[in-house]
Amino acid sequence: MNLCGESQRMLMIDGTGPFFRFTKKKRINWSKIPFSDLETENDLRAEVANKVPEDFAKFAAKARALGYNAVTLDDVAHLVVDKCYPTPLREKLSAYRRLYAELFEIAKANGLSVFITMDIMFFNDALRRKLRKNRQRTLRWLNECLERLFAEFASIAGVIMRFGETDGVDVTGDFRSELWLRSPHEARQFLRSLLPTFERYSRLMVFRTWCVGAFKIGDLTWNQERFAEVFEGVDSPSLVISCKYGESDFFRYLPLNPLFTTSRHKKVIEFQARREYEGFGAYPSFIGWDTEDYLNQLGANANVIGMSVWCQTGGWGKRRQLTFVRNSSVWVELNTFVLARLWQGSTCEQAIEEFSRESMPQVPTRVLVDFLRRSDIVIKDLLYIRELAERQLYFRRLRLPPQLYVFWDRIIIDEMVRSVLVCLVQDKEQALEEAKAAFEELQTMTAMAEEHGIPKKGLKLQLATFEILLAAREYFFRPNDEAVQSRLRELKTNYQLRYKRHYAVLLNFDQSAVHKIPLRWLIPVVVRERSRYRVVDQVLTVRLLGLLYPLAHRFRSRLGPKFASKQAMGLEVLLK
Q1: Which of 105, 324, 475, 555 is the one with CA 20 to 30 A from 132?
Q2: Contact (Cβ atoms closer than 8 angstroms) between residue 123 and residue 167
Q3: Measured between alpha carbons, how far is 377 from 176 in angstroms, rounded to an integer?
């Protein structure tokens, strides 16, 4: 399959699930395959080599049956061997190459093209000594690696490049990535250096615009001027630009990313079926209508040649559900199915009807549609605060997420969050009423599931979780009340006893430090409501706060909640 052809429409799905069976950590980093959990010193664990192909074959057959024609796997670093590597690492990488060769054959047999992910740039001690921080030397080395990769693995259709995010601080293993492209000029140089190799081997470079606000290129996710600085005049049949559907991460309430209409480059739009900020598939979090709206806005945009669906990857959480492989979530499967059908031209309700007929034949379509409509309200009005989520807020180069106190599988209920929300939300009574009405909708959904045979898995957990969110709304927007605090403590205790894979509920009602911070004055200065930078942003938040990064890095464990310094890249990255 020649995916460089202009007429080819890609429907991509991430195939990393089979690799997560072997991790024993309490909370899993789902951002990349946990390579260190799969290995011995110089080989792969025997059960990995045996079980991964079996699980991947099951996954590939299911993905192809849904209409997906491409699969993504991590990563280039584990498929190229360099003479400078120590012998045990070279032997281990040879074992990975044998395993991946088997996976590539399985993908080919199922009609799936293979895309390999890559961080720009990955390093280890041997590579650092060899490349000596020399940019040109590194580009030459990377070109050589890609040439060998393409020559040795004909099944690889392309490489998906992640430049604006690195491995989480909790990642261990033989390679670690870092933010290597720090300016538009460096990104253009990178593209011009590597694209000829992709063209020569008729492969695609899928360059992701996602970044987390670090360095001069840190607003490429949403900034059309920065986009032009990087891509204008960089024309290649091998270049595809991949953008998330909105200006932030996989949240609700985001307008369609303006980058899709910024240039005539071929583009891919990214969606997430397994919602990392909305329960990881533990409970209903349907995105069909939102996705349909985004695709309708795109219309017949010929430049958008593909959709990339994340059914497994993303976030930090305790859930152990592997989509289509083991303990699979019906709610993730529903999103994955509907996303495919929407890309293929169905309406959302047509897709729901087909899913109902195939996977829930006992449930009348009208009932399932009603159930999912209600679930949409529950997520948007109780997991999110509608007034806050509808505001477009920016800090430095980052479009702030529309959800500020539920992150991955943690609910943060403390005085600092309360003080921020009091400043940002004007109609507090409306926020309370929306939350109460949404919780009633969730109770109705539970009754509907009981009556009509809709899968009930996860609904009890959702009820218990969202009862805490409802009580949190009272705490945030009512006068400080000891009774509400006591109720939250009681709900948390009972919740943790009942559910093993629960959200972590972080309670802190200490007011002593918060009242010293003039938030009503500070927030309007550092947070803006339009994407365009103000003078105060250019002088204060971008330049002066950037000078504080070394200090912030030193005291990273004291910035925000403790988990933020142990996961992702750490909050201090926002100041780079």
Answers
A1: 555
A2: no
A3: 41
Look up residue 35 and give its amino acid.
F
Question: Structure tokens of 368?
Answer: 């399932």
Predicted local distance difference test score (pLDDT) of residue 195:
98
What DSSP element (H or E) covers 123? Answer: strand 122-123
Question: Which of left, alpha, beta for 408 (phi over 0: left; psi -120 to 50: alpha)?
Answer: left
Of 80, 77, 248, 275, the closest CA to residue 164 belongs to: 248
Residues 320-348 pLDDT 10s: 999 999 999 999 999 999 999 999 999 99
User: Rg for the chain (alpha carbons), in Å?
Assistant: 24
549-562 pLDDT per residue, tens: 565 455 444 445 66
Query: Residue 317 in contact with residue 280, Cβ under 8 Å?
Result: yes
pLDDT of residue 26: 87
State residue 241 phi and psi, 5-degree precision: -105, 125
Decide the pairing of beta strands 204-208 and 239-244: parallel
Tokens representing 358 are: 């195939």
Tokens of 119: 């961080």
For residues 386 and 431, give the distance between their C-alpha atoms in angstroms, rounded to a whole number: 7
Is residue 206 within 8 A of residue 161, CB to CB? The reply is yes
- 530-544 pLDDT, tens digit per residue, is 999 999 888 888 877
Provide the b/e sequence for 536-574 (b: ≥16 CB within 10 Å): ebeeebbeebbeeeeebeeebeebebebbbebbbbebbb
Which region, left, alpha or beta, applies to residue 202 given φ > 0 means left and ψ of -120 to 50 means alpha? left
Q: How far is CA 376 from the centre of its chain?
A: 20
The pLDDT score that the predictor gives to residue 519 is 86
- The model's pTM is 0.94
